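REQUEST ID: PR-0412
SUBMITTED BY: lab tech R.K.
PRIORITY: routine
TASK: structure prediction, single protein chain
INPUT:
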Amino acid sequence: MAGSRNELFIAVAGNIGVGKSTLTKLLAEAFGWEPFFEAVDDNPYLADFYRDMRKWSFHSQIFFLSRRLKHHYLLLQQPGPVVQDRSVYEDAEIFARNLYRQGLFDDRDYRSYRELYEAISAFLPPPDLLIYLRASVPTLLARIARRGRDFERNISVAYLMQLNELYEDWISRFKLCPVLIIETDEIDFVLHQADLNGVLAQIKQAVDRLPGQALSSRA
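STATUS: complete
OUTPUT:
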């Protein structure tokens, strides 16, 4: 990572239900990377947020931002390679931005949130590689249903579509590090080993192209 450490820093990005946490775990197992998982289950505002987004959006986004920043700091202290489940950039560029566009983040709260995010993120070393998992809304809905989180049952098609649009716009503008896009509609790296092997091969190839990196699996 530029100017801060010699070890590998990978971030996994993508919409709700696309498989970020699972891939983070599988990459840690395959390559011996230290995983940093998204703070979903321990967010004390999340269930309230899904019931009343207008009331709880600021609280929930501040929690996610603070936890992501903490993770970013901690992963920079690790002596070996790390893989992060969702980057700090997505909180601001996707989720907070979408809430603001929907009128669920008022102007004052959104300005305060953006000022905090921009002031801190300016000092954060970026990942060496961003892995973007892309999926259509039907695929996302199927995977959300499969994992069965109660507070996600009412996520709408329109909401997922809006997030997908923002992800595509963000990825098209993201220049902080190389981006590997993995299309996931036609594969399932959770249920099928051959699909997982293909994903791991893509990631290994992308990492091997990075300056000073050579990757080998534990297998």
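NOTES: The longest strand covers residues 9-14.
REVIEWED BY: pending
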